[in-house]
Amino acid sequence: MSQPAKTSPRASSAPDVPESAAGTRAAAQRLKMRRELATAAMELFATKGYEATTVDEIAATAGVARRTFFRHFRSKEEAIFPDHDDTLTRAEAVLDVAPAHEHPLDTVCRGIKEVMKMYAASPSVSVERYRLTREVPALREREIASVARYERLFTRYLLAHFDETDHHDGNDDPLLAEVAASAVVTAHNHVLRRWLRAGGQGDVETQLDHAFSIVRKTFGSGIGAGRTAGATAPPAPAAVRTEGEVLVAVARTDAPLDEVMRTIEEALRKK
Questions:
Q1: From the CB of residue 32, how many other CB atoms can be counted at a distance below 10 Å?
Q2: Which residues pair with 261 in a beta bridge?
Q3: With a cut of 70, which residues of the chain have pLDDT below it?
Q4: How far is CA 24 from the centre of its chain?
Q5: Contact 80/129 with Cβ under 8 angstroms?
Q6: Model pTM?
Q7: What is the pLDDT of residue 252?
Q8: What own/partner pairs with CB < 8 Å and gap ≥ 24 does 262-265 have?
Q9: DSSP one-letter string for the chain
């Protein structure tokens, strides 16, 4: 008579771990190791100099093997920017879940704020990293490459609100999308560099919002009327009418202040 198959106590008692939770933990552990390697690299670059520091020394300082270093970074200059992959993912998530009524340029501005949050989370580390990138051309090139990834992400997003195949004469939408994406990134980097040169001091959030308001004023009126072809257009942020010498404006409570002011300014110019 055959015996029933025995079940391993270890297998039967193992808890069911949701795949998403396991993936989240793995991502957190990966980011933790990347940051530890980056900290070790920065310490060595500051004390020994960039050229004199080897990958083996970085790995040893972090307490891991050389092969562990190369599981996370392809080169020692890449190790100085451990958070950009994760930040790029978070910026893309902002774009993916943006509300249907939000102006595409406003969405992009919110997306790039994830980059500023990354730097602002550790001001002293960010300031030291900035100093190193100014001194070491290889690190500067790596930083430029990282910036280009954000710019490509935002350009693709804005282009998605136009018909990319419609390139007839007089249609400047694709050009406007690329220029606007570059302007958002440039405005962000201008504020970021100013903040870093000030030692990571100051109200960087307010400075960033001011810079973005300039970008919106310059490019906002020409980009995308909606997220999908069948989307219902949101109501105008403000309605303006004149009664004799008096101008009356009625605005939604959630209307962006710069849009309301722009509507009023246009009405006054016509008046």
A1: 11
A2: none
A3: 1-20, 162-173, 221-262, 264, 266-271
A4: 20
A5: yes
A6: 0.67
A7: 58
A8: 262/217, 262/221, 263/236, 263/237, 263/238, 264/238, 264/240
A9: -PPPPPPPHHHHHPPPPPHHHHHHHHHHHHHHHHHHHHHHHHHHHHHH-TTT--HHHHHHHHTS-HHHHHHH-SSTTGGG-TTHHHHHHHHHHHHHT--TTS-HHHHHHHHHHHHHHHHHTSHHHHHHHHHHHHH-HHHHHHHHHHHHHHHHHHHHHHHTTS-TT---TT--HHHHHHHHHHHHHHHHHHHHHHHHHTTS-S-HHHHHHHHHHHHHHHHGGGS-S-SSTTPPPPPPSEEEEEETTEEEEEE-TTS-HHHHHHHHHHHHHH-
The encoded tokens of residue 250 equal 């009625």
Asked if 179 contacts 219 with a C-beta cutoff of 8 angstroms, the reply is: yes
**How many CB atoms within 10 Å of residue 217?**
14
Q: Which residue has the tokens 């307010």?
A: 206
